[in-house]
Amino acid sequence: MTLRLDRLAAALAPLPRVSLGAWPTPLVPLRRLGDALGLDLWLKRDDCSGLALGGNKARKLEFVIGEAIVRGAHTLVTAGPVTSNHTLMTSAAARRLGLEVHVVLGGEAPTSSTGNLALTQLYGAHVHFTSMNTADPSPGDLAASRVLCERLVRDTGGYWIPPGASMPASIPGYADGVREVIAQSGGAFPFDDVVVAYGTGSTSAGVYAGLVLADLPATVHAIAVSSPTAMERFAAPPPSEMVQAAIALFGWPVTLDATRARCNWVRPVDEPGYGLRTPAADAALLGMAREEGYLLDATYTAKAAAAMIAMARDGRLARGARVLFIHTGGLSTTAAAAAH
């Protein structure tokens, strides 16, 4: 198998970037869980990315904020739910780089701040609240949040970063993550499948972009953690659409259909909604802690792990397949999940 590492490196090299993470993050085997599932299973620990409490946003923000600074931005504006890892990590990144940051949080302002909200405020972010049920957002709530974000961008002259940093400029983050795994694996990509949570989609899209650029015969499985109804209201795009947008933006010389990489967008019909726990996810969180000694978060990685387990058991992941599970962080919520 010939890898197009030259094409992957050339696609990333000219892009503006800032330094936020501690790379490379660990790549570790999950032998007991893998044996139980009939998989050669590995964990990419981006919960150890080195920005705030760790997580996947560090890779994406390195490229997004690099672009913002090139454009002369001094202020960042972004949004997410009250418990958002993204707004926390964007606030930390802004402070690292001497930028101002405004975050719009969907949900009611609590009487006292805890968790990610308390840490976001600790970083000195300008926090704004807008009414929203993030598990089942109404069109009116989404419109109100959009109006507030647009006003803040206009009033501050800020650079707009969508929730989850899901924008074409963020896609190189996890394309570079694929390059990092190849470097950690002695110049090869020894995996048939990659499993990762899909919240707003740009992490899975970035992985897919990396596989495409390097022409790797692997499939990324993007596991949705929001309900089908909410995803329709958000107009959630498939990862392939995000990669196409990045190809157009950066002029990458590649066509999706002409590569061996594949993307499987998994949208469970019984997914109850963002931030709502499920018995399967709780079991996956408990199993990972007790079998392997690693913590998952209840919102993203536990749901993705539950889907991976189901896919191994029903044959969607072939027996003996070499599978990489990407830990996207969010561990600040794990203690609360465990308490319940």
UniProtKB/TrEMBL annotation:
Its EC number is 4.4.1.25. Transmembrane segments: none annotated. One of its GO terms (molecular function) is D-cysteine desulfhydrase activity. It is an enzyme of class 4 (lyase). It comes from the Bacteria. Residues 18-329 form the Tryptophan synthase beta chain-like PALP domain. Belongs to the ACC deaminase/D-cysteine desulfhydrase family. PANTHER family: 1-AMINOCYCLOPROPANE-1-CARBOXYLATE DEAMINASE-RELATED. This is L-cysteate sulfo-lyase. It comes from Luteitalea pratensis.
